[in-house]
Each structure stands twice: as structure tokens, then as C-alpha cells.
Design goal:
GO terms for molecular function: penicillin binding; peptidoglycan glycosyltransferase activity; serine-type D-Ala-D-Ala carboxypeptidase activity. The chain is built from 27 helices and 27 strands. It has 786 residues and is an alpha+beta fold. It is elongated.
């Protein structure tokens, strides 16, 4: 204790002399000044917090692969024993050769500096401990005022640093101080800390630095901008040689070793780790994770503090992203809607795990970047809501019909609930959620929807607009809207449906005329797959804060939204779209969707034009090398969904969806209008002869010709099916042969790949033998209410 007090007093006197020498060299009152400063020095606060310096945060996928690194300073901390002894000797030789002999202040060096300063030559005299103190205060600054205070060129700052340095030497070992200094120091060209410097300049860890490399890095600290090896290699080499000479003087190396090291050319292998989401292979998911942290109050009191925490705390952020799903989905999206397609159309897809809400994949056909005018580049994440990605969402079309089904089953309506569903109808008597009576709503089916008497099974299979309009009226618009919110759906602008006056009076709600995000749609479908358990979409599972030494575990936030019977019943009805069902697009072919699920994952795919789907519809459009007269849900979104699911499910165990609950009665379809009325005036001539011609097995050209002769429009899908029919011939059509359709209705033709195996799902793509479970999906339909 006496020794410490004695040391402090000596240092206090020296500090007083130093101030007097530097500030009052020509004043006769030097002794009085020195005495006063020495007394004040002993009374100064001495405790300095030494938190870990800023370091890189890393975002990982669920398998531990690196998605991105995010940082303000490129720094990776290392322990003392993981720093090459040669590096330690080099930094001591050039910065503080008496480091292990003094107590925070090199008295002889300080006095020497004072004398030289009195002679007119300013000289620094900071020990490594003092330099460490200065860097700690700079890195700990949380405001510009604190930063300026830490950097000010004043005697007062020098005295503060000295007082902290002396105290620091009392509670930290020399090795601990040297370790802290080497981790916090700036070594030029964006490299903070010795580990990052070794990796940046020489592609080796700090533990493996050779003599010439260590001397090079040590020489950068004093003037990191002047000695930047990237721009000033000659000055850097000269500085390295100065360090080597100093190492000879201190006895760290021999003259022969120094001369050999000087002969080594400055062979740099500059490497800077990518910073942020732009260089990531999963940039939009990365950006979503960043937004999740910066906007969540549990991670800090305000967005500024949260952003600082993310970029400086050395976080290890573990996420839900499944690399297999992401890779399969991105490949499918890029294949069908190339990123730089001249039509400027975009495909966006979100994949959710039922029962957890984990986001398994997030894909879109754009490069991540700030220049929206550049073809194929955007910073907008079209898969999610505005507050997480900047997108205002898109009208979701017939994917919303699933909500009406769930609402109907939730109210106890049986599968047999039926309506006469003609090609067009008018629905009256609906009321808004705020009590007002709505005007009559006139709507019609699209060309590929079947008119007739439909119950829930056949109406879903036909994706009949007129059926669902009447079902919504039976259930009640307000109850349908509330069901959507129970399933986690809301407008992409962040407002709830029940908070939006226009939505509350939206007669065409069941036809998907609300702007929503693919993620919300996928997550709603995941609720059906999970047996009615709704889980908030989740991207982060755990955050390890290396600075604080704490771990934040993030559990799924789940609750029962609908009963298991309602979920399973809805799933059963949706699965009917794979048994002779239909596919379509928004009214006017503004956009196309495809949503569906298996027990393991749910996905929603959107294809459209972000400039405005109504102004730039999916008609007569060339996307990549393919030309499409019209893009339907099964034309592009369907194949994207199918290829994503095939790749994502590879290696997973087979799991089946639940059977239809008995509580909703018979699963039989009603008698068709064909059986009740042979004189359907809207049927095409072909319908009178048995409906859609059976062209399966024909060549593409022959099939198209026969269907067009029968009065139908034809769309040949780009997706081939596994079939026993010869390669290139027709494997299936949608709707099935024999279906009675209005004149001009569209028939989708699927060609065979000649593999010799028929798909298990009938005429609709998406249920081949790659997965024996019949995935429940509802392709987009028409939105005549726009």
C-alpha cells in the first residue's frame, strides 16, 4: 500500500512538472504550478471502465453457415496467448520498450519529452497503457461531445489519461493491458485490432505472424494513415525497417535476423471481410434480420442504441434460415423470373415452418442494391411488410378464399353448404363491420372457373368467384375479415383490416383485393398446416452477446387461432385443387399468386410488376426467354412453388396431412349443372359434345389446335410433368377432359417429360412422386371486385 501511495505521489509530482514544463516554460512560478497540479492529480477520479472494444457481429443460418457480418469496425478479439510473441516484441520495441518496467508512466521518457518540449520540440510520451486508456475512452464515447472530450489536444486530457493509466496498472496485469491494447488499436486500412490486421494484410491469424509481418503491422500504429500499406507501400516498408532496428536495440532479435527480415518484399494479400447485407448471398433475409433487431424494443431503448449494439457488440445472431430451402427457392425464382428481365417483373416467395413461425426462406428475383433505376436491382423486400422491407404489398387474389373457407367451417357450416354459382351474379345484403349496409356487388367468374351448383368442395376445386362471394355473404363480411386477422393477416402498410375503413366495407375481400405480403399469406397457410396454431413469423432464434457475456433465447410466439377440425377441414378443401382444380390470376392478369403447404412448410409465391400490377399486367409478356400470352397462378408461381418444395423436402421424412374431419359431413360434390340442365346457354359447342376434348397423348401443336377449334383459349405451361406419355406430348390438362366450360375459357396444357411415371396429383402440377403427401394449395383466382 505504501509503495502504491509513493508511486502515485511521484507520478503526481512528475505530472505537475510536466504540466509546468509544457504549459509555463518561461514562467518563474513553475514550482507553485507543479505543486498544485500534483495535489489535484492525486484527487482525480481513477476508475476507468474497460469494456471490450467494438467488434464484428455475425448472422448465421440454422446450420451455422455465415449469412453476413455487420460492423462499424472490422475487429475480431483474440487472447494474449493467441498473439505471436514476435508481434508482442515488435509493438513493445516501437511503442513502449520499458512497458514491463514502469507503472503506467515512463518517467524517464516523460521527463525527456518535457525537456525537449521546453526547447521547442514537441514530443509525445504516452506509454502503451496511456494509449490504451485513450482508445478505451474514444470507443466508449456515445456522443460527439464525449468523443471530442476523449480526443482533445490538451494538457488536461493527458493528465486524465495518466491518472487512469496509473490506476489501471493497479488492477490489471501487464499482459492483460497489452492484450487490450493490441485488440483495440487501429492498424490502418480499416483493420482494427491485431487479429483483423493480420488477416487483412497477410491472410494469417495473429498467432502465425512472421517477423517481417509483425514489424510491418507494429509500424502502422503511430500514423495509420501515413503508413497505409495499400497507398504508401514505400513508407510502410521504411517504417517496418525502423521497427526491426528497434527490436535489435531492445534485444528481441539479432542484427542478422533484422537484416534478413528487411530483405523480404512487402507482399500484401489485402482482404477485407464483406460488411453488411449487400454482399450477402441472402441479402433480403439479412436485411430482414437487421430490421428485426433495430425495430424491436427488447434489444434497446431506441433505434440508435439498437443499431449501435448490432454493429459493435460482436453478436452471434442465429437465425431460422434453412440453406436447403433458400437455395431451392432462389434457384426456382431465378429460373422462372430472371433478375434482369426486361419486362421488370418480379417474383417473391416466403417459406414458413408450421408450428414455429420460423422463416425458412425468403427469395425474390432482384439483386440487392440502392439503385432502383438499375435493371434487376432493388433495396425493397417484396416478401414482407412495409416496416420490415419497404413494400406496400400486393392484392393476393384467390389465396384469400381459404380465409372464407376457414370462417365458414369455424361457424359450423358443413362441406355440403351449396349455392347456385352462375358465371356472374349479384350479391346483396352484406353489411360492413361498422354496421353500414353495403351496396350490391356484381361479379363474375373468370374463363377457367366452372359455373353451376357448387358446395365447398366443388366450389374450391373450381375456384368459383360467384360461389365464394355467396359463401362470404353467408358467413358475414366482418367475420371473414376477423378470421383473416386471427390467421395473422394484415395490410402490408401495417394497419389491421379492422382499423381500415375501406377494408371494413370491401365486398370483394374474399377475392383478395387487399394488399398483403407473401410472408403473411404463407404464415396464414402455415396455420392450417399446423392444426390451427398461429405463430408469429420468426427470423431469429438466439443472440449471443459476446461483450456482455449474455445470451438471448427467442422462443416461438404461438397461440391457437382456430380449432384443429377447422384447420384440417380447410386443408382438406384446399387439397381439392390438386384433383381437377383450377388456376388463375388477378382480374386483368394484374398479378399471379400460388400459395400452399405440406406438413413441414408453407409457401406463398407472388409474380407481378412492382411499378404497378394494374398498369403493367401479366399479358403478352416476355420474361427471360419465355413469352406468355397470359400468366396464371399455375404458369409461373406454381412451378416456382413446386420446384422449391421438391428441393426443400429432399431428405425429409414423409408426413401426411390430416384427413377430412367427420364433423363437417359428406365430402361428396353436388350434382353438376350438366346433369340438371343440358341446355346451358353459356357452354361452348365442344361442351355439348362432352366438354373439354381429351387431348392427352397428343403432340403440343395438335392438342392446341383441337382445343382452340373447340372454342377454348390455350396456355401451354412451362412446367413438364413426370408421365408415361412420350416426351413433349400432352401429359395432362387443367381442367380435366370432359369439363363443361364457357366459350373462351382457358385450358392449361402440361407436357410430359417422358420419365414414364405419372404424377400422383392428377392434372395439377405440384404433387408428383417426389413427395407422396398431397400438399394443400390454393392457386390464385380472379378478382372481379377491383
Amino acid at each position: 500500500m505504501l509503495q502504491r501511495i509513493s508511486q502515485l505521489m511521484i507520478v503526481g509530482v512528475v505530472a505537475g512538472l510536466l504540466v509546468a514544463a509544457l504549459a509555463l516554460p518561461a514562467v518563474g512560478g513553475l514550482g507553485i504550478t507543479a505543486r498544485n497540479v500534483a495535489a489535484g492529480f492525486l484527487e482525480m477520479p481513477s476508475q476507468l471502465e474497460t469494456p471490450p472494444p467494438p467488434q464484428r457481429s455475425t448472422i448465421y443460418d440454422r446450420d451455422g453457415g455465415v449469412i453476413a457480418e455487420i460492423f462499424d469496425q472490422n475487429r475480431e478479439l483474440v487472447e494474449f496467448d493467441d498473439i505471436s510473441p514476435m508481434m508482442r516484441d515488435a509493438i513493445l520495441a516501437i511503442e513502449d520498450s520499458r512497458f514491463y518496467d514502469h507503472g503506467g508512466l515512463d518517467v524517464s521518457g516523460t521527463l525527456r519529452a518535457a525537456v525537449r518540449t521546453m526547447g521547442g520540440n514537441t514530443e509525445g510520451a504516452s506509454s502503451i497503457t496511456q494509449q490504451y486508456v485513450k482508445n478505451v475512452q474514444i470507443e466508449a464515447a456515445t456522443s460527439q461531445e464525449e468523443l471530442d472530450h476523449a480526443r482533445e489536444e490538451t494538457i488536461a486530457r493527458k493528465i486524465r489519461e495518466l491518472r487512469y493509466a496509473i490506476a489501471l496498472e493497479q488492477r490489471m496485469t501487464k499482459d492483460e493491458i497489452l492484450e487490450g491494447y493490441l485488440n483495440i488499436a487501429y492498424f490502418s486500412d480499416g483493420a482494427y485490432g491485431v487479429e483483423s490486421a493480420a488477416q487483412h494484410f497477410f491472410q494469417v491469424p495473429a498467432s502465425e505472424l512472421k517477423l517481417d509481418q509483425a514489424a510491418t503491422i507494429a509500424g502502422l500504429v503511430r500514423y495509420p494513415y501515413l503508413y497505409n500499406p495499400r497507398f504508401f507501400p514505400e513508407q510502410t516498408e521504411e517504417r517496418r525497417n525502423v521497427v526491426l532496428d528497434r527490436m535489435v536495440v531492445t534485444g528481441a532479435i539479432t542484427e542478422e535476423e533484422a537484416e534478413e527480415a528487411k530483405k523480404v518484399e512487402l507482399d500484401l494479400e489485402l482482404d477485407t471481410p464483406p460488411n453488411g447485407c449487400v454482399p450477402s448471398d441472402q441479402p433480403f433475409f439479412c436485411d430482414y434480420v437487421v430490421q428485426e433487431i433495430e425495430q424491436d424494443e427488447r434489444f434497446g431503448p431506441n433505434e440508435t442504441e439498437r443499431a449501435r449494439w448490432l454493429r459493435t457488440a460482436g453478436l452471434e445472431i442465429h437465425t431460422t434460415l434453412d440453406p436447403q430451402t433458400q437455395e431451392a427457392g432462389q434457384a426456382a425464382v431465378d429460373k422462372w423470373v430472371p433478375r434482369e428481365n426486361e419486362s421488370r417483373k418480379v417474383a417473391a416467395q416466403a417459406v414458413i415452418e408450421p408450428g414455429t413461425g420460423h422463416i425458412l426462406g425468403m427469395m425474390q428475383s432482384r439483386n440487392y442494391g440502392p439503385d432502383e433505376s438499375k435493371l434487376g436491382e432493388t433495396s425493397i423486400n417484396f416478401t414482407t411488410d412495409s416496416d420490415r422491407g419497404g413494400s406496400s404489398g400486393f392484392q393476393a387474389g384467390s389465396t384469400f378464399k381459404a380465409i372464407t373457407l376457414a370462417a365458414a367451417l369455424d361457424e359450423g357450416l358443413p362441406f355440403s353448404t351449396s349455392f347456385n354459382s352462375p358465371s356472374s351474379t349479384t350479391v346483396s345484403g352484406q353489411t360492413s363491420c361498422n354496421g353500414g349496409r353495403l351496396e350490391s356487388w356484381s361479379l363474375s367468374n373468370a374463363g377457367d372457373s366452372n359455373a353451376g351448383n357448387h358446395n365447398m368442395i366443388s366450389g374450391t376445386k373450381a375456384s368459383s368467384n360467384t360461389f365464394f362471394a355467396q359463401l362470404q355473404a353467408r358467413v358475414g363480411l366482418c367475420d371473414t375479415i376477423k378470421m383473416a386477422e386471427r390467421l395473422g393477416l394484415q395490410r402490408a402498410d401495417g394497419t389491421l383490416f379492422t382499423e381500415n375503413e375501406n377494408t371494413l366495407a370491401n365486398s370483394s375481400f374474399t377475392l383478395g383485393s387487399e394488399e398483403v405480403s407473401p410472408m403473411r399469406v404463407a404464415n396464414a397457410y402455415a396455420t392450417f398446416a399446423s392444426g390451427g396454431m398461429y405463430c408469429e413469423p420468426q427470423a431469429i432464434t438466439k443472440i449471443e452477446d459476446r461483450q456482455a457475456g449474455t445470451t438471448i433465447d427467442i422462443e416461438p410466439e404461438c397461440e391457437r387461432a382456430i380449432s384443429e377440425d377447422v384447420a384440417d377441414g380447410t386443408a382438406y378443401l384446399l387439397s381439392q385443387t390438386f384433383n381437377g382444380g383450377t388456376a388463375g390470376s388477378l382480374d386483368g392478369s394484374a398479378a399471379a399468386w400460388f400459395a400452399g403447404f405440406t406438413p413441414q412448410m408453407a409457401s406463398a409465391v407472388f409474380v407481378g410488376d412492382p411499378r404497378g400490377p394494374q398498369q403493367y399486367p401479366l399479358r403478352n409478356v416476355t420474361i427471360g426467354s419465355r413469352h406468355f400470352p397470359v400468366v396464371y397462378g399455375a404458369t409461373i408461381p406454381g412451378p416456382i412453388w413446386q420446384e422449391t418444395m421438391r428441393g426443400a423436402h429432399e431428405g425429409l421424412e414423409t408426413r401426411r396431412l390430416a384427413s377430412a374431419p367427420g364433423s363437417f359431413g359428406s365430402t361428396s360434390e353436388p350434382r353438376s349443372s350438366d346433369e340438371d340442365d343440358d341446355g346451358d346457354e353459356e357452354a361452348s359447342p365442344a361442351s355439348d359434345d362432352g366438354g373439354v376434348p381429351n387431348v392427352i397423348g397428343m403432340s403440343e401443336s395438335a392438342a392446341v389446335a383441337q382445343l382452340e377449334d373447340a372454342g377454348y383459349s390455350v396456355n401451354v405451361s412451362g412446367t413438364t410433368l413426370r408421365s408415361s406419355e412420350p416426351s413433349g406430348s400432352v401429359a395432362a390438362i387443367n381442367p380435366d377432359p370432359g369439363r363443361r366450360l364457357p366459350k373462351g375459357a382457358t385450358v392449361i396444357v402440361f407436357l410430359s417429360d417422358g420419365s414414364g411415371r405419372e404424377s400422383a396429383g392428377g392434372t395439377h402440377p405440384g404433387n408428383e412422386e417426389w413427395h407422396p403427401v398431397r400438399p394443400a394449395t390454393l392457386p390464385t383466382g380472379e378478382n372481379s371486385g377491383e
